[in-house]
## 1
Amino acid sequence: MPISASPAAPLVPPRVLTVAGSDSGGGAGIQADLKTMLAHGVHGMSVITAVTAQNSLGVQGAWELPVEAVRAQYRSVVDDIGVQAVKTGMLASAALVETVAALLAATDAPVVVDPVGVSKHGDPLLAAEALDSVRQKLLPVATVATPNLDEVAQLTGVTVTDESGMRRAAGEILGYGPRWVVIKGGHLPGDPVDLLTDGTEEHWLRAPRHDNRHTHGTGCTLASAIACGLARGQDVPTAVRAAKEYVTGAIAAGFPLGAGIGPVDHGWRL
């Protein structure tokens, strides 16, 4: 009898885990992360740290999950499915920051830390007393940290007004232990520029500024896109450059929702 060939096993895409808060409006947080991961062809998984009531006008409420619930979600995913990269976002409290940092330290995968402090509308998403935990516990386990200028000021006290200030801020953040940092300079005047550095190499990433106010979710989206590149085996500069290009396109395609600031378009390439 002829021997039939056995069907090939289906290919498993790279697996990326986001540890972050839920955005009920769908533009940022866990929802933005998973959309970004789908757009990059990886399998996205999630650990929800907090639930927010949020829309285009701001954050109307936020409720953090118990430490036990966050730890159980993480162990459930990592112990069975495994991960090629992890991205963190809103962690809300010192207890959650320290719990997640300990979990990450025991996981053999690159980590992208978006040290979320405030929302696009200025709503606080991290307790003030958690800043020391971010500095001392979370940043030291980061492969890449991606603070914006407000988060730089929160963490270091450095107020950035120009590109030389971005270099100083990068040095301050690197002092807390991440291997690389991306200082996001999109709030400075002129075309948006980000600085990627490990303290030795410097990469200045420039892009045109799009006249579009619908930019909700940019920080979450950038960090998730970097994690996707790292999960695919890219080095940090390659992953960050590709993520910057993706986010720039998503901002250009951002669309209005509700009465306030709409989201970037995570599916713009599709």
Note: The chain has eight helices and nine strands.
## 2
Amino acid sequence: MATTPPNQSIERAAAVLGALGASENGSVRASDIARAIGLGTSTTGRLLATLESLEYVRRDPETQGYSVGRAVLELASQGLNHNPVHRESRAAAQELAHRIGLTANVGVLDDAWAIYLCHFEGSLAPKSHTMIGMRQPLHASALGKALMLDLTEVQRRALLPELPRYTDHTITTHDALTADLAASASRGWCVENQELALGRFCIAAPIRNASGRIAAALSISGRVTQLRDRDMDSLAEDLIEVADRISVGLGMISAVAH
């Protein structure tokens, strides 16, 4: 079957939006965008003018810097609202974060990554930015490990041909990953101990859909120093209870009952 060739204008517009999303300060000048995406300044200027007219970008009249516009934020919000996992898990994850004082996240599998659908901060783990829409490597995060619990080793190797190292604690071989996931499945929850970033500790449990398959994962994360004196078994029990409650909301129990 013949494939439809990519539309160059759409690709370029997407590159502009990607450059804006990658900006650390949220406002980028046209010349910097052009340099980042490898286009001429005049071409980039025309793209920005069109995107601005459609409200996909916003231009600050004082600094002349560009940022993500209202239309992008509205689309993102609609996408989340239409997602059944987000709808079912949002309130439960928020309540969990508030109760334990740590960060609660919900993530789903997206190709070879875990993508955040929910991100709530407790009083002990404030952040200046949201993680929603951001991604994490599967093998180096508790969320990612929980999302892989249903996969066979053959499937994992095909999905992750390589296991990049992020810290000295990162699992970098499939034999070690298989052993880690086997222990996690037996325990009922996954652990990430400074494998993605030094000082970070995270535990996660799977969320299952009506067919009983893993649809998402729920995690609790914080600094190692915040979790050192916690009763980990009690915290994991709380995590699993909330994950199971979300699974029930997605229809898992009723599907099993029938």
Note: The chain has eleven helices and eight strands.
## 3
Amino acid sequence: MSSVTTKDGVEIFYKDWGPRFGQPIVFHHGWPLSSDEWDTQMLFFISHGYRVIAHDRRGHGRSSQVSEGHDMDHYADDTLAVVEHLDLRNAVHVGHSTGGGEALHYVARHGQRLGRVAKLVLIGAVPPTMLKSAAYPGGLPMEVFDGFRSALAANRAQYYVDLPAGPFYGFNRPGAKTIPGVVQNWWRQGMAGGAKAHYDGIKAFSETDFTDDLKSVTVPAFVMHGDDDQVVPIGNSAPLSAKLLKNAKLKIYPGYPHGMCMTHADVVNADLLAFIKS
């Protein structure tokens, strides 16, 4: 199994596919999933000559189910451990949902300073912040995230069926056709991770304020978001992030759900490729 051990002793699993000298694309998965979330994108970009890398966040997937460190600083540092282990340069970092926060924080905290980043992509991503505050009155109230924690603690297995079968992929919308394999694959990825990491991760993705990170990033960025995202509502996310980034392109996808990388992979992949090649 391919893995790297971080400075605090956490084993981080990663995939590294494609030509060694192809431009690297690093994919950052959403909560509570794993690098398997990106299979469709990774296979697509391999076919176009890119080197693709994706890791399981600490406590998720095949990485160590540790008790501590489930916050954005550790997530960014764990990403750095993978990047340095593989000596990735001129990399494009692509993050979905919580992974968007992780990718952004890595670029701002490490990637730009070390000259290892070429571009950043945020898809259905949590920045600037999900939690309602004086600075972001359009955010969600704490009660929403307390509900996530309660559902996870009470019956994680059932919660991990209800979320993908409902709002994550928009399967709860009138006329939508549920794809059982997609729901089952989401459940499989979620249940492979640790409950403690997932519980603590709710605070990480909902309460972290990425404003300063967004302001500090200067590499070209592409912000992609569905306007029917029921998990990370667009009103408090993508347009605000794009405005804070210094060099960003914003594209809003009418009717697309939070899990748009799966439900509309053909469109997402084509747009990602065009941005990376630009």
Note: The two ends are 35 Å apart (CA to CA).
